[in-house]
Amino acid sequence: MIDIIHVSKTYPKQQVKAVDDVSLHIDSGEFFGLLGPNGAGKTTLIRILVTLLLPTSGEVQINNQVLTRKRADLKKKLSIITQENSLRYDMTLDQVMEWQARLYHIPLAVMRERREELLDFCGLTEHRKKTVRKLSGGMKRKLMLCRALLTDPEILILDEPTIGLDPASRRQMWDLLRRLNEKGLTVLMTTHYIEEAQSLCQRVALINKGKVVRLDTPAELISQLGPVAVDEFDGSQTRSSFFPTKEEALAYAESITNKFNMRSTTLEDVFLDIVGSGLEVV
Length: 282
Ligand SMILES: Nc1ncnc2c1ncn2[C@@H]1O[C@H](COP(=O)(O)OP(=O)(O)OP(=O)(O)O)[C@@H](O)[C@H]1O
Description:
Residues 2-234 form the ABC transporter domain. InterPro entries: AAA+_ATPase, ABC_transporter-like_ATP-bd, ABC_transporter-like_CS, ABC_transporter_ATP-binding, P-loop_NTPase. There is one protein chain. The chain has 282 residues and is α/β, with parallel strands linked by helices. It is 35% helix and 28% strand. The chain has 10 helices and 13 strands. The chain has helices at 42-49, 72-75, 93-103, 108-121, 137-149, 167-182, 194-200, 218-225, 246-255, 267-275; strands at residues 2-11, 16-26, 31-35, 57-62, 65-66, 78-81, 155-159, 186-190, 203-208, 211-216, 228-233, 238-243, 259-264. Helix 3 (93-103) crosses helix 4. The longest helix has 16 residues, at 167-182. The two termini are 23 Å apart. Residues 278-282 have low confidence and may be disordered. The chain binds adenosine-5'-triphosphate (ATP). Residues 11, 14, 16, 18, 36, 38-44 line the site of adenosine-5'-triphosphate (ATP).
């Protein structure tokens, strides 16, 4: 499990407070989402989680032990997939995995066995002799997933795992992540695709200006806003209103003259409501 305890980060030169007193507890086996607009502090927070950045104050604990750069035993439990494609284009898939094994001192025999399993799991076995430059965007993402799993982490951290992927590749990645989570892997991810968070995450934290402004299950966040939405177009823009029941939504819809559409509220509505409302902190 991960405990983020009163973590703040100020970038000294710019004096930007990117993360502002964030505390979060993420259980073992949880699928957890960090959502927030551009510049909210999500990437900074996950870089702190994997000790790529040091917090200005506060600490991170893994299984109740303080994480520092020197704690190789704790760092081994975490694996990160960053937003950037960090693969070498001249390497084959097999070579990418071998390279990773050497970096992490994984014995060759162990690497071979895991590589077979992981390439098969991600549906990449038939492409193993190709160089990275010949892979599609979706395949590259899957290879980054295989590489991140080679060290057999307890916690997988993903920064925008499906950015730039087409809908089919995105759903394939969702299935892989779901299956990994079902096997017990703790998953923490950031995403701008709110329907992705709604579909995958057991809990989400909404972050803005470095602070956690909401933390709950997607279903609870939707229920708090009102599970039935009425969109009305007033001739220049669409406005959404939210209601606890269909009856109340219908009563409202009948009282207006604008064209309307009634639908289920989504996590995206919650996100837009919070981000657009000046954000009161919980
Ligand atoms: N290396 C850096 N030096 C100075 N300021 C930075 C640095 N990295 C990020 N920031 C600033 O910190 C704040 C948080 O940025 P961060 O990248 O963590 O946000 P984010 O939520 O991940 O954004 P996005 O969704 O766009 O990836 C922003 O104001 C950003 O400009």
